[in-house]
Write a structure and sequence with these properties.
monooxygenase, oxidoreductase activity, 17% strand, two-stranded antiparallel sheet, alpha/beta, 11 strands, single chain, flavoprotein, EC 1.-.-.-, FMN
Length: 288
């Protein structure tokens, strides 16, 4: 077992009084250059957006050809901005070594002055066979176990205390991860998952936010919010409900249902730099 603190205890993000808006960018083809994405992030910050988040993939199905590394891109965003929140949305922790992620997340949080959010999920082999092509774990149940074990290690690593973990999938034997993140007790974690599955909801309730994948409508979101509220049993710490919606969908009903963040949902196989710039110029939503 790990000597862990609970990331869900994060006190650095008060619950938003308005729906916050973020660009959610598939960093493919025209967006596969970190310099381009960093400039977009700086422009978004100037235009009043609250966040910029990037996809995390090794490859995608045709016609996508170029794919950027998310962590290098996030470092570029951190140095190009001063206010906005940013992070991977989402990173599949089952294909990453948790000790390395502990270093990366703390470093990005320091680099940005405490603005980093870690989005996590199971990942999928469906859209580019990136898991099977690289010999990664294909079984959803085992990937879920690896995800939860990684999150346990990350919570302990962010505490700044020595981590002693011997689990089914990972070992961390007495390593102290310093420097710690600026945010206390650690980086906020948003967990993604399909709304109809109980396990992702329970996972998210232990952390700092939930990002429902393939959300049907705002009524379904209201049900999700009610379920998570019950699972959290009145915890007073901040919790985010994050929805990905196309730019032409009114986010106001989702905000009324409990969403705290709206992320722009672009078609990964058709997104262009001009399209993102157009959405950026239109500005963030205003849902008080």
């Amino acid at each position: 077992m790990t000597n862990a603190v609970t990331p869900g205890e994060n006190q650095t993000q008060p619950t938003a009084s308005r729906l916050q808006s973020g660009l959610w960018l598939p960093i493919f083809d025209e967006l596969a250059d970190p310099r381009v994405v960093a400039r977009l992030a700086a422009d978004a910050e100037e235009a009043g957006w609250d966040g910029v988040f990037v996809w995390d993939h090794l490859r995608w199905r045709a016609p996508v050809q170029q794919v950027a590394d998310p962590w290098i891109t996030l470092a570029a965003i951190a140095t190009a901005t001063e206010r906005i929140r940013f992070g991977p949305m989402v990173t599949p922790l089952a294909r990453r070594r948790p000790a390395k992620v502990a270093r990366e997340t703390a470093t990005l949080d320091l680099l940005s002055g405490g603005r980093f959010t870690l989005g996590v999920g199971l990942g999928s082999n469906r859209f580019g066979e990136e898991w099977s092509a690289t010999g990664e774990e294909l079984d959803d149940r085992r990937r879920g176990q690896m995800l939860d074990e990684s999150l346990e290690i990350l919570g302990a690593a962010w505490s700044g205390e020595p981590v002693h973990h011997r689990g089914q999938h990972y070992t961390v034997d007495g390593i102290t991860f310093l420097p710690r993140p600026i945010q206390h007790p650690g980086v906020p974690v948003w967990a993604a998952g399909f709304p109809g599955n109980a396990k992702p909801l329970r996972r998210a309730a232990r952390h700092d936010g939930f990002f429902p994948v393939n959300l049907e409508d705002h009524d379904q979101l209201a049900e999700i919010v009610a379920t998570i509220t019950g699972l959290r049993q009145g915890q007073a710490t901040a919790f985010d409900i994050v929805v990905g919606l196309a730019a032409d969908i009114d986010p106001a009903p989702y905000a009324k249902a409990g969403a705290t963040w709206w992320l722009t949902d672009f078609d990964p196989e058709a997104v262009s730099l001009d399209q993102v710039r157009g959405v950026l110029r239109d500005g963030p939503v205003d849902c008080e």
